[in-house]
Structures are given as C-alpha cells and as structure tokens.
Amino acid sequence: MLRGKLFGGWLSSLIMVLVNTAGATPPDIVIKSAPSLAVRSGEAANTIAIGDNAIIIAKARIPLDDVIEASIRTGGSYVVIQDDKAQEDWANLMLYLSERDPDNLTEIPLPFGIQYYGLAKSGKPTPAFLITPPVSGVVIVSVDNKESFTPNIKVNGGGYQEFEGGLYKLSFNAQAGKKYRVTISDDLSDSGLYSIAAYIK
C-alpha cells in the first residue's frame, strides 16, 4: 500500500497511462487519472524542480513496478505523462511503439514531459533514445534503474553521469531543435526494469 507525504498540488493533474500494445490494432489504450501520488512512509522520493513545480521522477522499487515489468514482458508499454502539454507527444510515441516489434527496437523518440519505462534484456541491445529540446538550455537526462543494472548514460557518445538521490543523471547544454541521441547501456548483460525521462532545467 502506498502511503505517506503527498508532493504538491501540481501532481493532481498527473496522468498515468498504461498501454497494452500486444495484439491490438490500433493499440488498446487505458488512461487512468491519478489525483494524488504518495511514497511509502520513511522513503524519500527523488524530485526535480521545473519552474515552481517539484516533480517526482523516481522512487525505490515498489510493488507497482512488478506489474509494470510484467506488462512490458508481454508486449505492453508503460508511460507516465508528467506535463499535460505532452499529450500529443504521448499519442505519437504510442503510435510509434505500436507499429514496431518491442523486442527489436533500436531507437525510441523520447518527448519531454514523459517518463518512459523499459526493460533491458540480457543479450539484446538497450534502445537509444532520441530527444529534441524545444528550447535551448540545460537538459537533464534521468534514469531510474529500479535496483537492477547500473546504467551508463551518454549523449551523442559523450558526457559523464552522476549518481544523486538514487538516480543516475547526465546534464548537458542543448540547442533548440537539435536532435540528441541518448544511450543508457552498452553492456549486453544488463537486464531489468528502468525508467528514463528528459527535462529542461
């Protein structure tokens, strides 16, 4: 059971999206609203400040993660929309994922304002993520490894990640409209659930 401190009224507009693309054309989409979000008592949530908002971007592995992992293993996708302006981007991402074999994805376009959950599989390359900032500024790529493998975040093949508050992060100066290729693993033995998101600081 989730309980504990709630983190800000902004999260009342958070939308959690579970999309099961297995065998569905077009994808079978279920949207559930989340009027509040909490973490277990005594357990710190990792947040990032976006303007005046503090957005939860990761927490320690919880029972829901097991459900998410099971869904992904059967061909589904799990995405959390953290910005209501990203709904169209979410729809485009879901269409992209539904048209491709999840076991053979090599690249995934990752919109801002969206947290994507993936599953690294031993013996298979982890997909790269393509991000295109709408404005110039400092971009933060954040990976929550859900207590599985240790990521190795690179942007266009370079950069140095930091470990802070249970998250792996890489920050870089980005130009508006330029596409950046983010990789999180180059080790084929890596496996397990993870989530990734990109933010403009």
Précis, in short:
This protein is mainly beta.
3D architecture notes:
The chain has 201 residues and is mostly beta strands. The chain has a single domain (9-200), classed as Jelly Rolls. The protein has two helices and 14 strands, in the order E-E-E-E-H-E-H-E-E-E-E-E-E-E-E-E. The strands form three sheets. It has an eight-stranded antiparallel β-sheet with strand order 2-1-5-7-14-9-12-11. It has a four-stranded mixed β-sheet with strand order 6-8-13-10.
Query: The CATH topology, please?
Result: Jelly Rolls
**Largest β-sheet summary:** 8 strands, antiparallel
Q: In percent terms, what proportion of residues is strand?
A: 35-45%
CATH architecture: Sandwich
Please report the first level of CATH classification, the CATH class. Answer: Mainly Beta
Q: What is the number of beta strands?
A: 14
Overall geometry comes to globular
Please give the domain count: 1
Percent of residues in helices comes to 10-25%
Structural class: mainly beta
What's the order of the H and E elements? EEEEHEHEEEEEEEEE
Averaged pLDDT: 75
Low-confidence stretches: 1-45, 54-58
State the separation between the terminal residues, measured CA to CA: 32 Å
Cross-sheet strand order for the largest sheet: 2-1-5-7-14-9-12-11
Count the DSSP helices: 2
Alpha carbon gyration radius = 16 Å
